[in-house]
Write a structure and sequence with these properties.
Blueprint: E1 3-6, E2 14-18, H1 25-29, H2 33-37, E3 41-45, H3 62-75, E4 81-86, H4 88-99, E5 104-110, H5 120-138, H6 142-155, H7 161-171, H8 176-188, E6 202-207, H9 215-224, E7 229-233, H10 239-242, H11 244-259
Helix pairs in contact: 3-4, 5-6, 5-8, 6-7
């Protein structure tokens, strides 16, 4: 498993950064790592089936993905962390709290929702899958065409040629089979029945011009989490790539919300108790 790490100030909280659908940690987070490292220890892994993430041979599921993250935390000696997720990574962050609640001290949920059923993202996914399959089957450069298709569907319009080429290269590091499995998992995720039970400080970063996950869905997520604070970020779904300066500003503001002196007042969880020792390993 490839992991980007950056030490923060002594005693600072740890951020576990979870990238979006078919992305890599480098694509999703490398341009804001230094900014975040001024405030926290930062860990950004390639998720299962993405880039250099765990390759188990088993079908991708969000459940296995978040179990990998909990195992990685044990390997790195991290007791608790703030789960910071973008798009599909935001779904993974929600599920991390659900499956491993003692690991998660806070949530920062960016450009994401409780589900994407009926949304432009789901519609784009349904149109993208056949194009991806045809490109891979019939074109000698099918993998590159697949990355280009994903870039337009997952990131939206990327006006800068150099940034678009870099994004396509990063997206091409995830195989078609793994991308399809991740797309399927994201399309079927639904936290509506339990997201209201979240008991840790939470910030929801709303991408206000998002054409993939409509802002109204992001706001519904924020409204469903007790005490959640919203942070407005002007940009489309690919703002993490197209405007990392603004993205970094929003993340720092959200970090202050979930780790600041009044954070515990917004959440319903009692102070964390020390976790029992665990023995597990990440690939």
């Amino acid at each position: 498993m490839a992991v980007w790490e950056s030490d923060g100030p002594p005693g600072a909280p740890t951020l576990m950064l979870l990238h979006g659908l078919s992305m890599t940690a480098e694509l999703g987070w490398s341009r804001v790592m230094a900014r975040l490292a001024a405030h926290a220890r930062v860990v950004a892994p390639d998720l299962r089936g993405h880039g250099d993430g765990v390759q188990s041979g088993d079908p991708f599921t969000l459940e296995s993905c978040v179990d990998d993250i909990s195992a990685l935390a044990s390997v790195l000696g991290i007791q608790q962390f703030v789960a910071v997720g973008y798009s599909m990574g935001g779904m993974a962050a929600q599920l991390l709290w659900r499956r491993h609640p003692l690991r998660v001290s806070g949530l920062v949920l960016c450009a994401t929702a409780r589900n994407v059923r009926g949304s432009p993202m789901e519609q784009a996914i349904s149109m993208t899958l056949p194009a991806m399959a045809m490109a891979t089957r019939w074109s000698p450069a099918g993998h590159l065409l697949t990355a280009q298709t994903l870039a337009s569907s997952v990131l939206g319009h990327v006006p800068d040629d150099a940034t678009r080429s870099w994004a396509e290269l990063q997206l091409s590091r995830t195989s078609l089979a793994d991308a399809v499995a991740a797309i399927h998992a994201a399309a079927h995720f639904n936290s509506r029945m339990w997201i209201g039970e979240v008991d840790v400080p939470t910030a929801v970063v709303i991408t206000t011009r998002d054409t993939m996950v409509p802002p109204r869905r992001q706001r519904r997520l924020a409204q469903a989490v007790p005490g959640a604070v919203t942070v407005e970020l002007v940009g489309d779904h690919g703002v993490c790539v197209t405007d990392p300066a603004a993205f970094g500003d929003a993340l720092v503001e959200a970090l202050h919300v979930v780790t600041g002196p009044r954070a515990s007042e917004r959440a319903g969880r009692a102070p964390a108790m020390p976790m029992p020792g665990a023995s597990c390993a990440a690939g």
